[in-house]
Amino acid sequence: MKIAGKIIDVHQRRIYPGIVTISGGRIDSIVEAEESPDHYIMPGLADAHVHIESSMLVPSHFAVAAVRHGTVAVVTDPHEIANVLGRDGVKFMLDNAENVPVKMIFGAPSCVPATSSESAGARIGSADIAEMLKEGRVKFLAEMMNFPGVIYNESEVHLKLEAARDAGVPIDGHAPGLTGEELKKYIEAGISTDHECTSLEEALEKISGGMKILIREGSAARNLDVLAPLLSYYPEKVMICTDDLHPETLLRGHINKLVSRLVSMGYNLFDVVRAASLNTFEHYRISAGTLRQGDPADFIIVDDPATMNVMQTWIDGKCVYDGNKALFSPGEVIKINKFKCTRLLPDEIRVINEGGKINLIVARNGELTTDSDVIEAGEEEFVVSRPGEDVLKIVVKERYNDKPPAVGFIRGFGMKRGAMASSVAHDSHNIIAVGASDRDIVNAINLIVDAGGGMAVASDDGEEILKLPVAGIMSDLPVTAMASRYEKLSATVRDLGCRLDAPFMTLSFMALLVIPKLKMSDRGLFDGLAFKHIPLFVPNPYSKYKTL
């Protein structure tokens, strides 16, 4: 088979008219021609770090969506499903991904549970990591979020790192803000990447220490504008990733949109394409081609590198996207789950007033981090939501056992009425809810309990739920259906007064304890800076109220 076009050659760093000949799934030859069609042929794209579960799609449906945007390879950490189902969850992702041609490289999740300060559904220890790497289906040690454990020589952490070093696989990092001698020690443990940089100075220090930097631009965290200059300084040390990508974002584009944006910003085309393909293929040892003779025939045809509208995607010599639809089926989705809690009663989220002041979470639009505040508890017998002051009740209910929920208060959601709830709550994925009334909070949570996972809204207007039957965090639906239903549910929350751009995304991170400042676990308020639980009520020795 022969395909003609303008060849974007990242190795010779030039564009020329040429003809690509494919034989047996590989590139037999690339011959320069006098002229060619106006479209461009370039290496297929790679996402260097993504949690597929954040798209709420299973891997096979993620692949169907991704090839439309020229993605041929994905490096993924199945950390989210592992916190729900352990090794069974990882196996599910691996098995499901075998149904599709996209080259999905999975890591062994290094932090399951992410922290001992909340209740997770599973545990993956160092012996599990060693065994998984020995089996060979996982290809790297996924992001080591427990950087204090690395720095302060926590034995179990170092056993996981040792298992990865012994297996000779890459080790991914996660070290936001780490600098100096602590960073040096972290890197010396064999950790080779970081996707958490939020400043150019931080990234440059990490590169100088030997790390490679993943420029992240996803639905939750966006660092591309700040880190893009790295492409000019160290193009060989940079990869591009999304980390967390929600379905409506994936529907609109993937790495192709980031390539287009970087080229439009004036960065060198060959450096950008290299960061979006070759660098990732080489670092993670992915058997993917970059338009050289003898390579696997993995490439894409685009209208123009400035716009990156994908006309065709090819993997291993087969066209998998023809400009209209993906040319493969995602196959059957087997539903696995772990949901053991029972319905909630209104009295279980009642807060008896102890008097004085209460600690308050302050959510910020578009941010994973939060602030904290202290407000008056009031004079009533029970502390309730005060939507007129943007003080709403936040509830986290463990879903793996039947235990009483934890209750606190939060500002920043802006809801005037109703409640929203979700079983997507990083990293343990218990049920989290925010609302203006106890009745609606309980109703929203119970919708999720009854469904075995999902996202729900309850108010005087009625009840809605987007069911997530796979581990309580993913659907068996395709991206178009998921994006439509997700956006509709988000619009319903905004109709209740919520002023956040992505309310369910923000809600999901209100339980992520490893990112400060004040968050909520199923065991209560958690101070992410002091790294300990704190009481809801500020201690008041003169309280006239009794506690439960």
Please give a handful of descriptors for the protein shown:
548 residues, alpha/beta, TIM Barrel, 2 domains, 17 helices, disordered C terminus
Provide an overview of this structure:
With 548 residues, this protein is of the alpha/beta class. The protein has two domains: 44-288, Metal-dependent hydrolases (TIM Barrel, Alpha-Beta Barrel); 346-533, no CATH class. Helix content is 27%, strand content 26%. It is built from 17 helices and 28 strands. It is globular, with a radius of gyration of 24 Å. The model is unreliable at 543-548 (pLDDT under 50).
Task: Extract low-pLDDT stretches.
Answer: 543-548
CATH architectural grouping of the largest domain: Alpha-Beta Barrel
- Mean of the pLDDT scores? 95
The CATH class of the largest domain is Alpha Beta
Query: How much is the radius of gyration in Å?
Result: 24 Å
Helical content class? 25-40%
Question: What's the structural blueprint in terms of helices and strands?
Answer:
Blueprint: E1 2-9, E2 14-23, E3 26-32, E4 40-43, E5 45-50, H1 59-67, E6 71-76, H2 79-85, H3 87-97, E7 103-108, H4 126-135, E8 140-144, H5 147-151, H6 155-167, E9 171-173, H7 180-188, E10 193-194, H8 200-208, E11 212-216, H9 224-227, H10 230-233, E12 238-241, H11 247-252, H12 255-264, H13 269-275, H14 278-283, E13 299-302, E14 310-315, E15 318-321, E16 351-352, E17 357-363, E18 370-376, E19 382-383, E20 392-397, E21 406-411, E22 419-422, E23 431-435, H15 438-451, E24 454-459, E25 462-467, H16 479-495, H17 503-508, E26 518-521, E27 524-527, E28 532-533
Parallel strand pairs: 1-4, 5-6, 6-7, 7-8, 8-9, 10-11, 11-12, 17-21
Antiparallel strand pairs: 1-2, 2-3, 4-13, 13-14, 14-15, 16-19, 17-18, 20-21, 20-23, 22-23, 22-24, 24-25, 26-27, 27-28
